[in-house]
Amino acid sequence: LGLLIALPPASILPLGIAMIFGSASLSLLAATGAAVTVGLRRGGLLVSLLILPLYVPVLIFGVATASAAIVGPASPWPPLVMLCALSLASIVLAPLAASAALRTALR
14, 64, 86, 93: least CB-packed within 10 angstroms? Predict the structure, then answer.
């Protein structure tokens, strides 16, 4: 995809890594939001209020990685490391939060 839109070859690797870790983090956060609202009738607004603020740091660090890799003279690796840390935190905490939410929904 990067070659089709004429990205510099050096920026394709950081962008690919950012897409992998960002997608994993966003998917796990969405699973947590779905688990929180599984027992509610109108949970759409609640998901927006609970999960969208958690999306913002992932998006900020993803955009910072992309802009540093494509345009800037700055290194794309510091925001990428923060994005990886957010993804790893989501991998650890999202199943715990989802299981706790599902347990309370079943009671």
Answer: 93
